[in-house]
Amino acid sequence: MKITVFGATGGTGRHLVQQALTAGHHVTAVVRDPARLTGPRHSGLTLVTADVMRPEAIESALSGSDAVVSALGPRGRDAGNVCAAGARSIIAAMRATGTSRLVVVTASGHVVDAGDGFASRVLVKPLLRRFLRTGFADFARTDEEVRASGLDWTIMRPPRLTDGRRRAYRTAVDLNVRGGVTIARADLAHAVLEAIDDPATVGHCVSLGY
């Protein structure tokens, strides 16, 4: 499978690229600074230097791709709308190139649903919304952009990310994972790759946690 990855130099993106290559996929990593993608080069890896916010600049990276993954994430509490703006640009480029499969990583923190326990609904998430207001608003706008895209989309909703080792995790479709307060970036990357090839996740949100 040919996979185009945005946010390839981020914590989750690095795991995603490595796991995809190990699994035998061809990966096109779209980056602004190739030097930030560390590690040995792989024959299945193509680097494209481009600004994700310019749809015309990333179209060539999408041509021929079977799936596109956005692992873009805010850097700092006041990162603005990088995820939503990036998703909007990626969607425009996908429409221009006829690429249809899109997997986007946002988060579970800005969503309250029946999967959340009492403490999460009443205490934890209201506090998180106060301190992470900008980032959560960006994730919410990203969700809206993706849902309205008309593409074969899946939204991945992880809880707080860690750098822990891979282990067994739980997933839920269109529902937060009860008690799933953390997930390792390596496990999130694994879940993204699983979702790409699972038609049952198209048009749905996949939450995960331990």
Automatic annotation (TrEMBL):
- Tell me where in this chain the NAD(P)-binding domain is found: 7-199
Cross-referenced Pfam families, in alphabetical order? NAD_binding_10 (PF13460)
* Name of the protein in question: Putative NADH-flavin reductase
Cited InterPro entries: NAD(P)-bd_dom, NAD(P)-bd_dom_sf, Polyketide_Oxido-like
**Can you name the source organism?**
Nonomuraea fuscirosea
UniProt xrefs under Gene3D superfamilies: NAD(P)-binding Rossmann-like Domain (3.40.50.720)
Q: The organism's lineage?
A: Bacteria, Bacillati, Actinomycetota, Actinomycetes, Streptosporangiales
Provide any one GO MF term from the record: biliverdin reductase [NAD(P)H] activity
- Superkingdom per UniProt: Bacteria
